[in-house]
Amino acid sequence: MTAQQTNPGQPPASTHPVAEPALGVKGMLRWAWRQVTSMRTALFLLLLLAVAAVPGSLFPQRPVNAAAVTRYLKDNPDTGKFLDSLQMFDVYASTWFSAIYLLLFISLIGCVVPRARAHYKAMRSRPPRTPRRLSRLPEYETMELPAATGVSARQAITDAAALLKKRGYRVDVRDTDDAMPSVGAERGFLKEAGNLIFHLSLIGVLVCVGIGGLFGYRGQKILIEGETFVNTLVGYDAFTPGTNFDPATLDPFAVTLDQFDVRFDRESTRQFGQPIDFTAALTTKEEPGGEGRQKILKVNEPVYFGETGIFLVGNGYAPIVTVRDGNGQTAFSGPVVSVPSDGVYTSSVTIKVPDAGPDQLGFVGFFLPSAIKNDQGVSYSFDPDPLNPQLNLNSYYGDLGLDTGQPQNVYVLDVKDLTQLNGRDLPAGGITLGPGATYTLPEGKGSISFDGLKRYIGVDIRATPGQGGVLAFSLLAVAGLMASLYISRRRVWVRTGTHPDGRTMVEYGLLARGEDHRLAGETAALRELFTKQWHLPDTSHAPDTAPAETAKDR
Amino acid sequence: MPVINQTLGQYSELFMLLAAGTYTVAFIAFAWDLAKSSKTLQAVDRKAAEAAAAKVPVAVGAAGVSSNATASDDGRPADAAVRPSSSNAAVGGTADGDMRYTVKRRIPARVAVALTVLGALIHGAGVVTRAFGAGRVPWGNMYEFLTTGAFAAIAVFLLVLLRRDLRFLGTFVVGLVVIMLVAASVAYWTPVGHLVPALQSYWLIIHVSIAVLSSAIFTLTFAMSALQLVQARREKALASGGPDKPAFMRLVPSALSLEDLSYRFNAIGFLGWTFTLIFGAIWAEKAWGRFWGWDTKEVWTFVIWVVYAGYLHARATRGWTGTRAAWLSIVGYLCVVFNFTIVNQFFNGLHSYSGL
Ligand code: HEM
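Above: inputs. Below: predicted complex with protoporphyrin IX containing FE.
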C-alpha cells in the first residue's frame, strides 16, 4: 500500500518496495501514479474539496434558484459575467469541482485496491514470527510458574494459545520442540477491513447519486382544491428530467386534492400567525381506472407511489373569479392561483382572459386574505387567515399576445399592447372586490366578480432511482468507519522456557497496529487470564487488576 | 398540537440566566486555579528541583511501561524516542500525561468543578422546563440550539471529568459556555413557541440532537487543540533552553497527550457528524423531496465533514500529525461555528428557521 503511516509509536504498516531507478515513460507513469495515490495527495485533495465547496454557498446556484442567478447577473453585470465564466453559479457541476472529486476517487481506488489485496494476503498468512527480544515491544511482561505447579514450558504455550484463541486471536504455535516454544497471535483484521469498506462505500454512494441524476426526474405541479393531477408529461407545470430519463417510465397514478387545511399559531406573541400545520387531504389512484384511496399529505409526510414521491412544498389562495366580456358572455370562470409574497399571504394575482370579446381582458393586482387600510388609505393584509378577503385589481383590454405562439409566464401580464381601464391613477380608480361582489368595467368592457375562495398546494413530484443505494452504502460506510475506528489490531507473542531450577518462565509482549490507547488494558487482561489459568497468586506481577480499560489506559 | 406554557418558558429563561451566573463564578475559580497552581509550581520548583523530579515518576508510573518501546522486529525506527511518551515530565510540567487525577489537592479547581456541577443542574432545569413549556424537544430555533448545545458541552465535559482530569480545560469550556448562554439570551432570544411544519418531524429529535452532541464534542477538542498549539510552542522553547512560559501551561499535559486525547474525541465527533449528515439527508428527502440539494446549510455540513475527514487523514500522514492536525481540528470547529451563526442568519436557504 502506498499510504505512509506514522502513527505514534507505530511502525509504517508496510513499506513499498523502493522504486527502481525511474526508466522512461513507464517509470514516470509509475512515479505519477504513486504521487496520485499517496496519502499526502489524498489529504490535499480532501482539503481542496472542502474549500471548493464553499463558493456554492456564497453565490446563488442555477440548479437551486435560477431566478436568483439571473437577478445577480443583472445587478452585477461585470463581476457576474466573470464569475459565470468560472462556473461559480453551478459549482457542484463545474469542471473544477468535478475534477477534484474525481481525482480524489481515483486516488481512493488507487489507494484502496492494493491495500485490499495486501490485507487479503495478511488475513491468510500466519501471524508474524516471534521477535527475538520481546522486551522491546511497547507492552512486555514476564511471569514465572513455580516448579510445583507442574506446568511445563510446552504446556504453558498450549494454554496461552488456547486462551488467546478464545479471546479472538488467530494463533500460531511454533518451535514446540525447542527449549523455548512460542506462540504468535493476531487479532482485529476487521479494523483494516472496516477501513476498506468505508472507502469503497464512498464510491458506492457516488455511483448511486450518479444513477439518480441520470434516470430520475422531478416536476412541479400546482393543485387547486378539487383538481386532479395525472402523472403524465403534459400534466406538469414544470418538468426536469435526468439525462437518460425515459418518459415511458412515468407511473400513471392520479391525485385529487380534496381539501387543504392550514393552521396558524394563535398562542404565542412573537410567533403569532406563523404556520403550525399544513394538511392536504388527497384521493389517490394507482392507475387511471383504479380504486380511489384517501391519503394525507403533510410537509414531512410525503405520499409515495413506488419510487415516485409527492412532496408538499408550497401553498396559497386561489380566489374564484368570473369575468363577463363586453358581449355579455361569460369569458372566464374559475379559481385563479395567487402567488404569496410574505407571511400574511399578500399575494399577487394575474388574470388573462383571451376568450373575452370584442377585446381580450387582463387583470393584475393583489389578493389580501385579511384586508385593512392604513393611514394613507392603502390596503394591506394583517393576517394569513381569510378574515376579510379582498381582491385589489387593475384592468386592461387589448391584445394579450397569446396567439403569437411564444410561451408566456402565466404570472406576468405584459401590458405593452394593452390599454389600461382601471387603476389608482385613473378616473375609474382601482377595482376592490369582497367575496360575492361584482364590479362593472368602464366603457362597457364587461364585469368581474369575486365568487369565492379556494386554497391550492404546490407539490414536487420526484423519482430518484439509486436513492436506496445511497442510503445502503452510507450505512455500510458508517459500519466500516466504526469498525475502523474502534476495533484494535493487535499482535501478541508469548514465549516460555524452563529455568535450570525447574521454574517455567513466561514472557509476553504486545504490539498494536494503528492507534490503540487500550493496549495496556489488553496486557492487564491477558495477565489476569494467565494468572487464573496457572493458579498464580494474584499479586504475582502487578497489584492493579482493575478492569482492563481503566488500568494504565494507554 | 401541544399547549404552550409561557410561565414555564419564563422559568426556563430565568434558569438559563442563573446558570450563566453560576458558570461565570466557576470560570473565575478555574482561572484562579490556573494562576495559583502555576505560581505554586514555580515556587516548588525553585525550592527543590530534585524533589520534584523524584515525584514525577510516581505520578506517571503506569505510562513509564509503555514508553520503554524503542525498536521492534520490523526494524521500525524508535518512534518512542521521536514522539516521547505522554509524560509531561520531560518538558518540565507536572500534569499527568494520562490525565488521571493525582493526589495533589487543588482547592480552587474543586470549587470550580462544584460550581460547574451546580450550574449544570440549573442549566439542565432550564432545558427541561423549556421542553415542557413548548411541549416538544428543546431544539427548534437558534436560542434553543445554543442553550441546549451549551448544556450538552458542559455535560460531556463533566462526564469526561469523571474519568479524566481535564480540569485544565475548565476555563475554556466554561468560558465558551458562558458566551453561548449570553449570546442566546441577548442575540437569539425567542420565547417558547410551536414548530413550523417543516420542523415537525421525529427527525428533528434524531438529526439535531446528534448534531448538537457532535458540536459539543468538537467544542472540547477545539479547546484541546488550541492548548496543544500553545503547549507545543512552550515545549519547543523549553527544549532549546528558553523560558518556561506561559506558566499555567505546566498544569496542562504535554502536546502529545493533548493530541492523542483530542484525536479520540474527534473520532467520536466525526462519527456523530457522519450520522448528522446521513440523518439530515434522510430528513431532507422526506421534507423537500431530495436527500441532497446543496442548500447552504448542506454545503457547510459537508465542508465540516470533509475537514474532519481531512483531520483524521492528517493523523495518518507523515508530516501532518501534531501541530498541523491541531490546526485542522481548529479550522473544523470554526466551520461549525460559522455554520451555526453566519449561515443560519445571513445566507438564505431552505434551513431558514432560525426563529429570528
Ligand atoms: C472520498 C475521500 C475520502 C474520505 C472522505 C476519507 C475519509 C477517511 C476517514 C474518515 C478516515 C478515518 C477513519 C478510518 O480510519 O477508517 C480515513 C482513513 C484512511 N484513509 Fe481515507 N478518505 C478518503 C480518501 C482516501 C484516499 C484517496 C486514500 C488513499 C490515498 C485514503 C487512505 C486512507 C487511509 C490509509 C486511512 C487509514 C488511516 C489510519 O490508519 O488511521 N483515503 N479516511
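The two ends of chain B are 22 Å apart (CA to CA).
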